[in-house]
Each structure stands twice: as structure tokens, then as C-alpha cells.
Amino acid sequence: MDQHEKDYDRGETPRNSITEEHLTDILEQSLEIENEMMRTYLITAERIHDDGELKDRLQNFAEGNAKRTRQLKDEIERLKEDS
Questions:
Q1: Where are the domains of the chain?
Q2: Which residue ranges are recorded for the region named Disordered (predicted)?
């Protein structure tokens, strides 16, 4: 039987599927990266005194990371609740 012909509703797992635990690990690693990037952008923005436009862009980058951080936390929490 071809891999695409299997009935996954019957408990058969495709070879390329990802476990919830592995997905949680990936999202937690991504959360750490987003947090580190946010800190880097904020620290760098604080050190810039002669280029207000660049400082604003870096702060906007940090805000984007903060939004993704919240989204990642929500997804991680949802996965943990479902397991």
C-alpha cells in the first residue's frame, strides 16, 4: 500500500509526522531564540544615540519579537493542556 493511501484516522502514523513532545521542544527553542533576539535589539537600541531612525527600527523589531514570544507561549501552553 502506498504511503498516501493509508487511512490516518485509523491510528496509522505517517513517517514524517512529528510528536507533540518534539513539537513542544521546537517551539520552546524558538521561544528562547525570540527572547534572545528581543533582548539584543533592545540593548542595541539603548546604545544608539546618534541615529533615531535606526533606534526606532530596532525597537520595532523587538516589539515584533515580543508578539511572536506571546504567540509561542500560547501555542506551548495549548500543547501542554492537550496532552
A1: 14-82
A2: 1-20
